[in-house]
Design a protein that fits this description.
Blueprint: H1 7-13, H2 17-49, H3 57-90, H4 103-107, H5 112-169, H6 175-205
Helix pairs in contact: 2-3
Length: 206
């Protein structure tokens, strides 16, 4: 068998040429062995019908084995020549034939310096893409914070609207006046609580 690896042929055909030749070799060997068994069986049947003969089944088996060894030896020599022809003519990819995935390499040829520049440009683009992704993530975070702030502001405005409605119900229409009204009520409430606390202390002393 050929020792040449033939990687491109393997990629092109989807199997190694050496494996194909090995399977062909084994198939021929099996067929040859099977044919010898059939021939031997026919000879043994003919031997049974012959009355006067010096041939015996064991001698026929020895002759069959010798003939099989002779045939295998010559077959190996012929198959070796056939393998060389098939690997050189049939199971080989010409130099002008390219796989579909390799045609772009033939169309766009680069020198070593051009390839290095292309690699640097790719690295630069990757850096820019990572920066863009980071900026988008930061913008997304900022938008989420703004959304939360807006929701909180809307709740505060709703609270002010409710407070304004309460103030209107008590005869104050201005928000400043409303705060003054609330402050006055709170002061009055604090005074009343202080008076209650003082009276409670006097009663305990008595």
């Amino acid at each position: 068998m050929s020792a040449n690896v033939m990687l491109y042929e393997t990629q092109f055909f989807g199997f190694t040429p050496q494996t194909c030749m090995m399977r062909m070799y084994l198939a021929f060997q099996d067929h040859l062995f099977h044919m010898m068994l059939v021939i031997e069986e026919v000879i043994l049947k003919r031997l049974e019908s012959m009355r006067y003969t010096k041939l015996t089944p064991s001698s026929i088996r020895r002759s069959s084995e010798k003939f099989l060894a002779y045939m295998r030896n010559h077959f190996d020599q012929l198959f070796g020549k056939m393998e060389q022809v098939l690997l050189r003519v049939v199971l080989t990819v010409p130099e002008n034939v390219l796989l579909p995935e390799d045609k772009c390499q033939d169309q766009y040829r680069y020198t070593e310096s051009q390839f290095q520049e292309l690699q640097e440009e790719i690295c630069h683009l990757e850096h820019r893409i990572r920066a863009e992704i980071s900026a988008q993530q930061a913008l997304k975070t900022e938008l989420e914070e703004q959304k939360a702030t807006q929701e909180q502001l809307e709740r505060i405005l709703q609270w002010f609207d409710g407070l304004d409605n309460v103030c209107r119900e008590h005869g104050t229409s201005n928000l400043k006046e409303s705060f003054a009204f609330l402050k006055g009520n709170a002061t009055k409430l604090q005074t009343v609580m202080q008076e209650v606390e003082d009276k409670s202390k006097k009663l305990h002393k008595k």
